[in-house]
User: Fold this.
Amino acid sequence: MAYQQPSLPYAENALEPYISANTISFHYGKHHATYVKKFNEMVAGTPLDQQSIEEVVKTVAGDASKAGIFNNGAQAWNHSFYWNCLSPDGGGKPSGSLADKIDQDFGSYDTFREELANAAATQFGSGWAWLVLDNGTLKVTKTANAQTPVTEGMTPILTIDVWEHAYYLDYQNRRPDYVASLIDNLVNWDFATSNFEAAGA
Assistant:
């Protein structure tokens, strides 16, 4: 029951000029594809092969003997989620129920944006910045390497990949510029809102 790498929801050049087709080609076509391939190889022929990738990630989290399965599975899941967080028609501000909840829990969109951008810019080394729903409250958090909020009982609403392969070809060491470009021009608020509403908050 091998996990299939989902197709990109847009063309490789659709996020230009903010994220280049060259970056997408390496990031999706090489890095993400390798995580999926290694994950499938590691769980093949084991009971884990019968579970969804999200269930496997939750099952093996914290088990040092299954660190390879966790790292590749969580990275495969995180990336599949990340691609949907971006849209060539994205950016701007959310509307509707998610916008109201952001105002309620952060005080304003501007405060939220500052927290998310700061989390993404200050994550030491490789990792992810997230907007999550935690016990009914929206929060910004960050995770290192392959870690993911799904193992902490939180519901991911939105993520920003801050591994160097996500931005280095386009921005070199200017991670804050990549983060600002992504938030202001590419965030798929429709996807984020659907995640929020599906959580029943």
Q: What stands out?
A: The beta strands are 127-134, 137-144, 155-161. The longest strand covers residues 127-134. Helices lie at 21-43, 53-60, 67-84, 96-106, 109-122, 168-171, 175-185, 189-198.
